[in-house]
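Q: Joint fold for the lines below.
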Amino acid sequence: MSTDTSLPIRTVTDPDIKATYAVDQSVGATAPSQFEVVRARDLEDVVEVLRWAHETRTPVVPQGARSSLTGSSVAIEAGVVLNTEGLDAISTVDPLEALAVVGPGVITKDLKDAAAAAGLFYPPDPASSAFCTIGGNVATNAGGLCCVKYGVTADYVRALQVVLPGGEVIRTGHRTAKGVAGLDLTGLFVGSEGTLGVITEVTTRLVPAPDPALTVLATFGSLEAAGRAIVALRLERHLPSLVELLDRAAVAAVQSLADYGFPQDCEAVLLVQSDRPGHTADDVQRYAAVLAEAGAVDVAVADDAAEADLLLAGRRALSPALEAKGPRYLEDVCVPVGRLTELIRSGQEVAARHGLEIVMAGHAGDGNLHPSIFFDADDASSRARAHQAFTEIITAALRLGGTITGEHGIGTLKAPWLAEELGERELERQRAVKALFDPRGILNPGRVYWS
Amino acid sequence: MSTDTSLPIRTVTDPDIKATYAVDQSVGATAPSQFEVVRARDLEDVVEVLRWAHETRTPVVPQGARSSLTGSSVAIEAGVVLNTEGLDAISTVDPLEALAVVGPGVITKDLKDAAAAAGLFYPPDPASSAFCTIGGNVATNAGGLCCVKYGVTADYVRALQVVLPGGEVIRTGHRTAKGVAGLDLTGLFVGSEGTLGVITEVTTRLVPAPDPALTVLATFGSLEAAGRAIVALRLERHLPSLVELLDRAAVAAVQSLADYGFPQDCEAVLLVQSDRPGHTADDVQRYAAVLAEAGAVDVAVADDAAEADLLLAGRRALSPALEAKGPRYLEDVCVPVGRLTELIRSGQEVAARHGLEIVMAGHAGDGNLHPSIFFDADDASSRARAHQAFTEIITAALRLGGTITGEHGIGTLKAPWLAEELGERELERQRAVKALFDPRGILNPGRVYWS
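A: Joint structure:
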């Protein structure tokens, strides 16, 4: 074993640049006092870092665009940030085999665009798709706005290339349409948040291109009426490609950035889309009727793709709009769709009891809610109450048969609750699985499994 | 540790009944001289057997309908067959959450029918769906006739209940539409062929019901022309829901059972279906044009669902029809769709060189071919040549970027080739994963990992 403990690879030395790699978008993320940053340029760089870090037992934080909301890509004290943004090649888009092969640093939107250029579609669509990376999407099993019809990232990952601690390069899955030779480890890595290995190549399934989506926007006098509409939409034979909910405060936040065309005199807005080839106009008319039947106060069909795009841009502006409102705990609970209204009611009750503003929004068609729990950063009591509210919404989601995280992952933010969802025994099993791949525990230590 | 080594549960004693649980549908399957059979009636039976077997280090063969073609459910000498056909409850079909919860002993067709009764669709469709079970489908990641449009069983398994050696009952995955709390072990169990645990409950995703399929049948003067048609169909924006290939001998075998309406004066037949709501007639007309353009000699659109059903019944009769022809090695290789014609050519060359009849058929839209390599059971040379041909087709598939098994699994039949596909190092890793769940190696020992 070498006694040389200095990183055998070029690191970022400029302190300002280095600082940008220290944190992600999670609440309260701060840089550690000492860490290194490696911007990998190729597979060999990743191998080199993981060989060295394994040997020297140095913590490694795999990192992409740092859009994580859970702290999973924040630098660790005395550790190395291994950023893979530079592995951004789209090496294959194959219409016949209906797959793409891309580096982990490819921006999600760039893969979507490359697929579209070949007449195909890569559905996963986190709200951050303009700047998040495929590597991060795989590491968190990202979802987003498409999932009510198209599912999540895991549904599109066919094969991976991964570098393990020690530097071994492995391949999981298969490129053929079917393949059952041995265990499929792919699903283990999807959603593992950089705790098992570093993803260096992703083979994704692609599907035929849909039509440009048309949108219907409905306003509701109560969140409960919106909840009834969501249930009715889920029972449609032709599922919407998007069912997004924003409450009054969410709409106000979006409209405060720019006029995206959202009406502000209502308790809740639902955005509903169809992208079904040849039938987008039929479908949105049908959805409009369903929304009206469920009790919508006003229903407006976006007449053309431009208007539909503007509304969707408004939805995508929600994250920065809420970010601008001030510090918040951002929830990501997911419950059965039939329990969503109860979850929202619980959240409202929590807000009232703690005297907090909690903005409700999310991927309603999946039962995946993102309440934003705002607090005053200068008021310790406000922050403590917000954290208590955060805890209570998690508890409510579990009570309703849901999960503590639908798509953001565990990171450091939710690590204290993982055992509550899985049980200690299952958590022990998962730690044992991790130890198979990372026996020295160098990858994202202290995160997810929280031991 | 108990010194009582007798099974603490009722076993099958009637020798004739017991014999039916000794073998599956794999070539040359024979009963061992000594084994026990337990027909589990509930979860507790499975727990009891796995507790006892772990303690006594007794081999256990998890088993469903014994439709395996690879020997994965054949009884093991001095072992216990643990049959879960009796766990056949369909406890939930939930249109709102779009899922079903079923026991492993549910017949695939029964789940499909239960979904259909609720206006939903469970797509996985092995040719054996009338008698195979969901537990077996999950254990092999079964595919079948739907996969060109709908994917495989793994794409529909959302959560599992599994009993591990020692009797621990675990749950994997989630019932919500999204969920990323911790590692998802579900994908490890899907396709693990009874080597990691015994599946006792399956939560499947359901999708909206398609229309009853219409069918177009095309005849070709050469397998190569059929190959061109397959490629053209894969590039259609509205993917067929089925693209099946049968060569001349396969058609003759089917027609020898009954008149299913297949024309016999051609080198190959393609069956192509559309189930797209509202567009089955448009689509099959379009596919007919694509097939003609690719060089089909004759193209016939089944005018109604009854005619389409008859053709599909013919396709489903292929397995028994070929079975009736005599002993055979049944292949299950899968290659990129663009290499399928090369694979077929390789198979024909192998047949000619060894003086064997090799019947070509399979799920052409997935590149998943099932050559049947016939031999004379009374002629050792014929059997040896057939086995050599079997080997050579596997080698050809690997050379073409394919896999040794698309959907049947490894079992005992393909175990000698798994290392060739995965490499010894990956195989060692997979054995280590197995050891985490089954540290004493009691589940299907000697199968799949072949150590």
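Q: Anything notable?
A: Chain A touches chain B through 82 residues (CB under 8 Å). Chain A has a mean pLDDT of 96.
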